Amino acid sequence: MAEQVIFDTLLRELRRLNLYPPEERQLKDLRSKIERKFDNSDNSPEDIDAGKYAVLLYGLALKALEAEAEENKKISYAPEKEDSATIICLDYLALMGTCGRMLAAQILCNKLLPLPQVKEWLSQKPDRITIAVADRMLALEAADVPKRVKLAQSITEKASAMNIADATCFFKVNGTRKGQLTFRTLENFMTGRYGLECRRRLIHPETLEEITTCTESMPSYPDKNLVEDVAFHLRTMDPIVMEKVLRTVERLADEVDSATLKEIIPHTLSPSLPLAKAAMDVIAKFGRSKRGRIFAQIFNESPRIRAEVINRLPLLSSDNFAAFMGRISDGFHTPVLSALFSTLSEEDSHRFGSILSAVLKSSTNGKKNTLKPVLNKILKQDKLNEPEKPVSEEGRTVSGLDYIKLGAPIVLNIEKKQKQTGFKRIFGKETAQPDSLPDIYTGGQISNQRIHKLNRWKSQAQKITFQNCRFAACDFRDSFMETCIFKNCSFDSCSFGEAVYRECEFADCTFSSCSLNETTFYNCSFDGCSFQYSHFDSAVFSLCSIELCEFTAIAAPGSFFCRCRFISCEFNVADFREAFIYKSLMKGLLFIYSEFSSTLFSESEVRSTVFHDCSTLECKALGIQTDSAQLLNALQRTLAARLCQREQLKKRSNGMGNMGQYERGIIYKAIKRWFAQKDIDLSHARFAENNSRRLEWTAAKMNSKRKLFLYMLPALLHSDVFEQANEIEQLCMPSHIDGYSIPLDVIRSLKGIFPDINIETGKNDSVPIKALMSIGSTGTIAQTPESDIDCWVCCDFSKCPPDSRERLQFKLRAVEEWAANNFDLELHFFTMDVKDIRENKFGLSDEESSGSAQSAILKEEFYRTALLIAGRPPLWWFTPVEADEKTYAAMAKKTAVLKGTDFCVDLGNVPRIPMEEFFGASLWQIVKGVKSPFKSIMKFGLLEMYTSSNKYCLLCESVKKNILAGMRGLRRVDPYMLLYKELADFYKSQEQPEYKWLTAMALRLKCGLLDEKGISGHPTRPEEKEIIEFATGLSGENSVGHFKAFKSLSDFRSVVTLGEKINLFMIKTYMKVRGEQDKISGAAITPEDLARLGRIVFSNFAKRKFKVARISLPGPKTHFFDSLIITRDLNKVWEISGEYPDESGARNIQTRIESGKDLTAILIWLVLNGLYDSKMRLKTDLSSAPLRDRDLKKLFANLTAFFPRKTIFNTPVEETLNSEQMRKAYFIINLCAPRESNKIQEVHLVYSTNWGEVFCKPVKVTAALIESPERYLQKEMADIHSGPIQMGQFVPPGSECPSLKIPVR
């Protein structure tokens, strides 16, 4: 007891020091007191009790840093100190668990702490501490302190030198999962001494103990060979070792191949029960569709473990459960269902009880009332005791204004009632004595007060309003406040221990370094409040509304949140260990670097909530509704853990007792529905986890500006802030995203950009956006820092005004322009009606659409690459793999019944791609190939693969199958990596190695993996490690075609050669699909689309006289030369060469670009293909006279302005339905003629057409041409001249020849 008093005194002192940092003479005493607390076996810094000390130490460190910075400003020289408050705090925070280490890392990354002190502190600590803290510094991603980040990276590299014993100890203390250890540090362990020793011991073990040590310590790591090395020891025939091996495989593996699974199955019949259980657990996790059959085989062949088999049945899918029931004897059906009924009633009572209740409601049989007592018993399972409404004691009313008077005596009422005497003692009642009743401060408003060290221990107050008050070092312990209002108040270093607040309101208040242990808040509201460096151990929040609040460095272990409402709050480094969130609502929350060990989410709804780098592996969840991947996975883990505990405790099944046939039928129906709902939740967990990973990766590949826009994007569509700021409200249609709430950090960002705008959401007439999803490379290996974003805005326009779509599109176009101008992000919105998507109606489309030929193709690509940014998940996530239309419709109905109609959005199934679709779809890919040739190479290969056999599996279904199986490796779930693998195998089977090579080049180019820079470096994410391994294999010298000649596509000749290969591929492809057209009856492409496509292909690839040929320049490099050299030989042949420095910069390298007798045509070709830019030097010599460099610069500038590259070849697709027409004409006069000539000797006409072609032809000089170029064109080129056209001309500077008489318009 005395020791506890000492510790409480330490807490009070730490709170006081958060107000007044300690002086140097006090440091020794402070360190001594903290040492007494934590330097003994009974009080470990890792204990849950240490959280309150950690947050106060963090607050003290920040306060001390600020004080030291102010002190250093006042003196020119600051002497070195032996110790400091900051160092003391760092020393102990580094030992205080995950949150403590994160707080220590934040201090080390604080610019107020000088870098030399950071280095000194890190150098003085042992590696086990510095590596752990440096790892958390990396997790912070503090781009504003690059030197500290680099220092942290160098320290984490020491992990590579740790041996197995030290590494095992490190893992045990710090953990290895996300939120505990960054992948960069884990990679150092696994590629260093620990990983090498583990592999050696697993491959060549000297003792069985070595196998045990390695398997038990090994962290989860994306290395398939490592799992195979572990699985190899299934052949040791030692049941103890084999059991440990199987447990390791279950823990580490993402998938188990068929051969390994076949080895595991016999172990289920092992005489060793632990080994048999381990084998069954691996099969339950990785057996996929075979699990039901395997479990039935075990059940039939091994009667002694039937109870264990039944206990694992809830881990199976509904299809596997049906397979199990179909393969066991009918006589066992009732006992199995009876045991399952008991198991589900006790271990998943809320979900099973809700389903049983729904089944009973739908029944019309009068016997259903006999099951109501059973249902009530089930629903009472796992219920938590809800806090009762606090009741205040009786007292006498005094003025509320006296509440803040210092020194006012507090009446302690030990006896509030006094006995009567005499006759009244027998017949009378107890009466309250007025003088003994406590004071209840009532009413009044207290404003603008600074209140210091106010003691209101065990006081009572009601109906007082506090406004703009500051409370410092005040004591409110055991007090009771009722219906009080606090506005814009601050509480610094105050104690609220065991206080009660009932129906109080807190608005814009700040709590700093406060103690709220065992404080009760009942029916209170917190709006816009801030809590920092405070602790809430065992605090109770009941019926509270907490909105727009920020929590920084808080400890709330064992706290209880019952029927609370959290909206748009942020928690930064929060300790929620052993906390309870019960029957609460959480929307728009952001948890950062927070700890959730043994936290229970029960019967709550958690939506639109992000857990960023949080430790959630040991979090528990029961009966919750959520879209969070972490909590969906927690649901699955909690069920598995409870089943395991049930088996350990050997709980007996109560069975179905004397239930009749009707009751048993209801129970069986409820059990089947339970399996179906669990399947939906598991599918949701798997897809949500993959979606969350892709969203994080998307942000990681962006710069800070683009990342900010990505976070704000849903909020821009969910609110009217953008319309208000740009004053276009009357032109736009408001919208809202289903299920989305704006997080607090996004609200802050929006207010920073639009400071004078109030954010409004949820207008009654707004368009409901069911889902906001990106399509394409976003969140895949193909995304680069320069990638654009294509977003499908999936709306329900069924109940909206007719003009709502057009008005929403107006807003979206404005947002696109804003993103391009302010965030350097190319963004494309596609406004879609969910009904049209469901029916695959995409219509006649423009350049970024698919046309009538690609409805099925587009749907497949959408589901394969779709990334859910905000809104409802698509129903397709929850339907079986390769479901036909009947199965899809049945699953849609089942999902609506089990999860509600608003659970997901139905965007329709993916139809099979019929042969008649192939022709039109292929032509569209060729057309798109002009813009993105490598993307179209891969897409066309996919189309050809699909139509080569009727047994193909759509790639989107392959991705879906792998995600649902729990696979996480990119080779299984990344759309582009899986696409390449499928195409490589297909072209290999077709004996087309050159196409396989071209596909590999397409992937390398798309993903930015052209040189060693793209596939080297230290991986910071599992995806980066996989990409490095994948690209290294892709670039091997044994690869077909070799990549060596095209290693980085940095020289002009290799780029041109590769472009020629692409054009050849496109032409061959066109000829192939055109030849197949006659073989396909009823090709699904409209005549209009056919005409468009044919003309686009013709304009891009066909050779015509005088046509300026387009060259393909694939690769990231667009400028190859620093200088252009123009010369003419003795045969009057012109040659243009490019010059650029070599890698050393010591000499220039010269490369021939083009040659010919018509210089003007060459120059036009050079400019329109983008081989020239204004920064280049132009060099001419005597052979090129009278041409001079300044003549060429002037010509090139004029041509670039007259024929903009972005538009001249990029004409609208609709124009291809029209006849060919001249659009622009440019005359080049006397370019190579002597400048002193006073006559027009030569004229070149450069003209463009509406089909996206440009021609350069020499024309005969006539009087008609000189006098009226327009009439000349009307006469000489009447077939393509039908109206006024834009004209221009170039006469070399200094030339004495006349100009053409072009009218000025």
Automatic annotation (TrEMBL):
<dbReference type="InterPro" id="IPR001646">
    <property type="entry name" value="5peptide_repeat"/>
</dbReference>
<dbReference type="GO" id="GO:0006171">
    <property type="term" value="P:cAMP biosynthetic process"/>
</dbReference>
<dbReference type="Pfam" id="PF00805">
    <property type="entry name" value="Pentapeptide"/>
</dbReference>
<dbReference type="InterPro" id="IPR024685">
    <property type="entry name" value="Adenylate_cyclase_1_N"/>
</dbReference>
<dbReference type="GO" id="GO:0004016">
    <property type="term" value="F:adenylate cyclase activity"/>
</dbReference>
<feature type="domain" description="Adenylate cyclase class-I N-terminal">
    <location>
        <begin position="682"/>
        <end position="877"/>
    </location>
</feature>
<keyword id="KW-0456">Lyase</keyword>
<dbReference type="InterPro" id="IPR000274">
    <property type="entry name" value="Adenylate_cyclase_1"/>
</dbReference>
<protein>
    <submittedName>
        <fullName>Putative adenylate cyclase</fullName>
        <ecNumber>4.6.1.1</ecNumber>
    </submittedName>
</protein>
<dbReference type="Pfam" id="PF12633">
    <property type="entry name" value="Adenyl_cycl_N"/>
</dbReference>
<dbReference type="Pfam" id="PF01295">
    <property type="entry name" value="Adenylate_cycl"/>
</dbReference>
